[in-house]
Amino acid sequence: MSRPPANPPSSPDHARRAGRLIRTARRAHPAPAQPDGHTASGDITSNLTQPSAVLDEAHLGDIEGALGRIRVGEPDDQRRTLKRRLLTFLAIMGPGIIVMVGDNDAGGVATYAQAGQNYGYSLLWVLLLLIPVLIVNQEMVVRLGAVTGVGHARLINERFGRFWGWFSVGDLFILNFLTIVTEFIGVALALAYFGVSKYVAVPVAAATLVAIAVTGSFRRWERALLAFIASSMVLFPLAFMCHPAYGATVYHSLVPGIQGGVSSDAILLIIAIVGTTVAPWQLFFQQSNVVDKRITPRFINPERADTFLGSAVVVIGAGAIMIAGVYAVLGTPLAGHFTDALGVARALGHKGQVLGALFAIVLLDASIIGAAAVTLSTSYAFGDFFGIKHSLHRTFAGAKGFYTAYTGMIIVAAGIVLIPGAPLGVVTEAVQALAGLLLPSACVFLLLLCNDKQVLGPWVNPNWLNVVATIIIATLLMLSGTLMATTIFPHINGARIAVWLSVALAAGLAGIGIALRISRARRRYAALPAADIPRAQRRNWRMPPLAMLKPVTWSPALKLGIIALRGYLVIAALLLVIKAIQLGTG
After folding, report:
1. CB 508 within 8 A of CB 565
2. Are 431 and 178 in contact (CB under 8 A)?
3. Measuring CA to CA, which residue among 359, 337, 39, 377 is closest to residue 191?
4. Which helix H or strand E contains 70, and what residues bound it?
5. Which of 94, 254, 299, 411 is 20 to 30 A removed from 185 (C-alpha atoms)?
């Protein structure tokens, strides 16, 4: 069924609003002259003469990256030299590597270290399976950001209605705030290793995070983040210094298994690994950061390369942390008894002072990068949803709401960590697992947007990508279903439940129905096949203003499926809270 718009398309209010948005867009982004004189708005080719959806002039102009600049009027030479391509990549690089390395945040370091300390090398295979999940999800948001020129939260709100917009953004705000708390927990633990009180460490870190964001320069912010990323690379020599068992590492990366067998605790940890490696905030952050950096379809390929590079770095880094966790407790009674990341650092310190110090530095860098990215993701979504100016190109005076939201979240989250006796250890793992549980819902909306011809035109998903994305969603639902079953019935065979759910999801009509419906929707929305769009025009295609798009049509079956998914995930989240309390109370 159709989502009823606030005003029917034919109403005077809607017409006035659409006209106002279009006029604003034309002033901010005048359309190029076309020799054929097309002016209609009903098909893809005519889009080339229409204004784009970008309404904030701060999101238009030169690309000012940390490692280079690309001017708007620079010619697009298809016969570029290798040197020119490299310089372009360096100028574009940033959103992909930051979102990926930011995902190995404080909660990620703690989760991967816990996997190594409690389960040895046996969970390395989970990381390998997450590579396609990372690449598929983040490549889709790269296209959405570059083609639409608007953030993820705004697209959900405009295309699916404020009800689903509130649901999605509400999930994001709660989850992101809890994640920011875990980042400050990481800061406190990392500097505690060097004897610094959390009452000094946390306020200094909070002040640093605010200082690097409110400079009014996207380039300065990106340079600061890349500097922290560079210093976090000490993780790789640390892993080599931990003398990994290379044969066991390769074996457990390729052969699935769980040391000690399948249990609800192990499933919870696997979901936490998924949630910390592929988190919902990544979708919102990278799309908005691509928009803020002023990346257009012309530069999608370099940004894809940036994302692929980040995916490799994040997965290899996660494996390195697991290796450090294994080595830290090797031959000690601590094996299988994880406490927190500080415990791992101290265990490494007993085997070499340099090892402990390097792990603490990794944890500190991860916490700062993660806090900066997650907080900015929330501020971007806040600006998208409420229609306020939200760009790092603006000064504090030019985007007060955006920077106030950013600063406020930093201050409140830091304050919670300073509360004496707060159950911070339980919060860290529970937040990562909650991210894993909420990921399927975020992926479904992402998949629907990437098959909306009104939004992406010739850039919609190919069919093979829809199949891969559907399999990913089904796998995530299988994991959460296993957690639910083993939490409600702790004595059942977890491995058998996982197999049953896998077979049911593989053979179920839900995934097939979604894939078929998406395919039909693509054919219904299509005005001109993507293959018929000349390459040069495809590289310049931008989404028209949102007020000009036809409303989304949902079938009753699809709407029922979305509602059922949301209800299921709410129940799963409640059971996760129960499981976290059980773990916290022993």
Report:
1. no
2. yes
3. 359
4. strand 68-70
5. 94
**Longest alpha-carbon distance in the chain:** 77
Q: Tokens 């980040």 correspond to what residue?
A: 310
In order, the DSSP letters of 268-288 are HHHHHHHHHHS-HHHHHHHHH
249 vs 254: CA distance, rounded Å: 9
What span, in angstroms and rounded, lies between the C-alpha atoms of 77 and 70? 13
Q: Is 419 exposed, middle or buried (0-12, 13-18, 19+ CB in 10 A)?
A: exposed
Intra-chain end-to-end CA distance of the chain, in Å: 48
Q: Tell me 2's DSSP state.
A: B
What residues does 64 pair with on adjacent strands? 69
CA-based angle 214:220:221, to the nearest 5?
Answer: 60
Residue 482 pLDDT grade (very low, low, confident, very high; cuts 50, 70, 90): low
Interacting residues of 452 by C-beta distance below 8 A, sequence separation 6+:
159, 460, 521, 525, 552
- 488 lies in which domain range? 95-584
Helix axis angle, 264-277 relative to 424-449, nearest 10°?
Answer: 60
What is the Cα–Cα distance from 107 to 340, expressed in whole angstroms? 10
For the domain that residue 534 is a member of, what is the CATH number?
A: 1.20.1740.10
Which of 147, 148, 166 is CA-nearest to residue 156? 166
Alpha-helical regions (H) of 352-423 = 353-386, 400-417
Structure pTM?
Answer: 0.82
- Closest by CA to 120, choosing from 322, 345, 333, is 322
5 is a domain residue: no
pLDDT digits (tens, 9 = 90+) for 47-84: 544 566 777 788 888 999 999 999 887 776 655 788 88
Q: How many domains does the chain have?
A: 1
SS3 69: strand
What distance lies between CA 89 and its chain's CA centroid? 21
Kindly state the tokens that stand for 559.
């709407």
pLDDT at 402: 93
The answer as to whether 38 is a domain residue is: no
The residues, ordered by sequence, that sit 6+ positions from 571 with a Cβ below 8 Å of its Cβ are: 484
Supply the DSSP string of 539-585, one letter for each residue: HH--PPPGGGSPPPB--HHHHHHHHHHHHHHHHHHHHHHHHHHHHHT
A 10 A CB-CB count for 93 gives: 23
In a domain, 498, yes or no: yes
Contact (Cβ atoms closer than 8 angstroms) between residue 219 and residue 66 = yes
Q: Provide the pLDDT confidence category of residue 162 given band limits of 50, 70 and 90.
A: confident
319 in any annotated domain: yes
Nearest CA to 128 out of 260, 4, 252 is that of 252
**Per-residue confidence band for 9, with pLDDT thresholds at 50, 70 and 90:** very low
Residue located via tokens 């390769």: 250
Q: In this structure, what are the phi and psi dihedrals at residue 542, rounded to the nearest 5 degrees?
A: -130, 150
Average pLDDT of the residues in 400-420: 92
